Amino acid sequence: MAAAPSRRAAGTAQGACAASPALRLLRQRRGAGAAAMGTGTGSGTCPPGLGLLLVVVVVVLLGEARAEEVCSPPERLQYAELTESFSTMQSFPVGTTVTYVCRPGYMKIPGKSLDRTCGKDLRWSPTEEFCTARKCRHPGEPENGIVHVTDLTFGSQANFSCHTGFRIRGSSEITCVVKNKAVDWDGVPPFCERVPCEPPPSIANGYYTEVPEYVYQTTVTYRCNDAPRGEDPYSLVGTPSIFCTLDGDLNGVWSGPPPQCKVVKCENPKVPNGKKVSGFGPLYSYQHSVTFECDPGYFMIGRDVITCQEDNTWHPPQPTCEKITEDRCGAPKISHGQVIPLQSEYKQGESVQLRCNLHCAFPDGAEEITVTCEGQNTWSSVQNCACKPVHHDSSPVISHGRVIYGQKPEYAEGDSITIECYAGYTLHGADRIVYMGEGKWNPEVPTCHLSAYVIAIICVITVVLVSLAAFWVYKKCFSQEGSYTVDENCKETCILKTNVPAEMEETAQMT
Predict the structure, then answer these.
(1) What is the disulfide pattern of this chain (predicted)?
(2) pTM to 2 decimal places
(3) What is the pLDDT of residue 435?
(4) Tens digits of per-residue pLDDT, 435-457?
(5) Which residues are paired to 160 by β-bridges?
């Protein structure tokens, strides 16, 4: 009878082993391998003492499982860092939530959380950025210069340059950096100053009108002193005006050497068998011109107009008047043209070409003709060139700007003007220019472009208007309401109500 209880006890022990949670977990973890640890028959029995061993094994396996189900420290973010309580941790169980703070130079994006969580996939989420770079204020555009800014966020740079004739004073580049837990530029924006020139050189026996400062495009004009009583007057030799300009290194230099004040005196010219027809005077000084003509029966060899030069000589040389003969001709005379080849005299039968100057032509429209010496200083078919009037408009064209100083109906060589742009526009180029003649200015006439601020405002307004229009179209024409059902036979029914204008409203049912 005692054997029966013993068998029951053994059966109970075997059942307990079979029902052991440890064994079930072991089977789940190890599959068929765990089952093989029983009797091999799948009955769930196990040798004595094996139950305790299984418990130990399961505890170890559970520890391994827990060790595997942790996240590594989250990756380093450029814009944020972990709070101090999480910064030293090396492992994070699934479900752990960590908190960040934005780094200096960054700020929290409204509506975004500073938390990230270790997920079951052992990844940190969310992944989108939650801090954004702070922005420095716009540094502003320097007067007579330009600022180049592509971004205003922390770490960005602003580069400055000046218009022609101006130079940077200060640093040409500043950077948006962290200052006192905020962001600001690391330096003061520079300014543009007009390039200076040394005072113009003084000249002997002459002077120029002085001004407080000599800067880019300043023009000075020289004049000669009055000669002492009884002495010959001084003549201004050279260009009377010079102006401050730039050399290859953008330093201020004068446009050329100053003129000279010197006594220039040419001899009284006389042409035998000829006479003066203009330019009479007791004294012939610098740039004094005289015109000659020959007496009847004589022809001229050389030019009929000569001018006194700074070296006290006439140029071209004085002409001569030769007696007219049957086999010779002097050079044909032509207005607004030239003789090719030009000689002092030609033999009878020789031919030359007469060519008109630019914008000029002969009466028949030709620009060049051939004539022949017929003797007796007579040429065949000599004609004069007629020139079309050429008007050089000296007034500069300034779109979105105006002349504020020096404006005239017509400008003479050496005149200067000052230009400014209308409100909302920025000057690109020099604000002061000098007229060089033939419709040309130095430097070139500047242009006025829309200011960067105005362009930014226009862009913002455009984006807002487009967004509002798109939203209205969506709400008016594409926003839909309806229902979707599936019956017991898996038959689908979709009822949509298209939200369109009342006159076009319709309801569609799709099956």
Answers:
(1) 294-321, 421-448
(2) 0.51
(3) 86
(4) 888 788 888 898 898 876 667 77
(5) 147
